[in-house]
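RECORD TYPE: protein structure
NAME: Phenylalanine--tRNA ligase alpha subunit
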Amino acid sequence: MKEQLQALQQEATDKIQQASEPKELQAIKVAYLGKKGSVTKVLKGMGKLSKEERPVIGEMANQVRSAITEAIEKKQEALETALLAEKLEKEAIDVTLPGRPVRNGGAHLLTTIMEEIEDMFIGMGFEVREGPQVETDYFNFEALNLPKNHPARDMQDSFYITNELLLRTQTSPVQARTMQAYGGDKPIRMICPGIVYRRDTDDATHSHQFTQIEGLFVDKNVRMSDLKGVLNVFAKKMFGEDREIRLRPSFFPFTEPSVEMDISCKVCGGHGCSVCKGTGWIEILGAGMVHPNVLEMSGYDPDVYSGFAFGMGPERIAMLKYGVNDIRQFYTNDKRFLKQYHQA
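PREDICTED:
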């Protein structure tokens, strides 16, 4: 049995020295020291030995096991060192090479436009307010003079979650919430930017999700001329000092009277071209004097307070200002399109 153990130790040592990768060492360990390994099989025959021989063979077996284990560990360490050296050599970095340029990202065009609009109105004394995108039917419609079954609701095909909850179709609910929060006895000068949702078919000029910025000014003795003055300042700052505006009669349930605002076409200077469809004017936003019903439902006395409201789409503003002809380009994340508008 001594000869067997010595032969197994020599045999295992030779194989360990010849091993070229860690998985071979693992196989050798299992083959010699595992439950069914060669050394283990030899030790199972110790029951046939005399009492005098058992301690001697047991001690020798332990020495053989330790020797094989130690040889495996040394070889393992040597292989790992060699592999690491090889990897370092392959992955060596030439520090004399020029570095790769890091391209900075930039704000999305819509973000830039919205921030530009916000800065304009903040400069005119307006504050920026936000509200929930999941809105109640009351604030989205009823508080804005659109009771249930009102035909004007058909103009805004909505995403309803329950009978009383929906994805807001406009940012106007923020105006109603603000008026009610102010208790009906404080002036309000605010804009409310945000995302809105409508059941619409996506095409070059429509999207089921888009952005909107609405404004509200409520105080004593607010007049239509105040509205025109604010919108005139906005148009000139956004599109150029040579832009002219005009207000056309329109209809919105929450304003009376209501108007659409056009700006003179910057392409033809108001003479008529394909961009403005020969009219010389381009529609830009809707506005009007806050309906007395809306003021009253929010706690303001319409005999004391008056106000104006307006609403615009940043997508449309961006399309007109930068000549974008497809609204879907704002949402498809095409870097070739987006990088054109990165600020330096």
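COMMENT: The longest strand covers residues 209-219.
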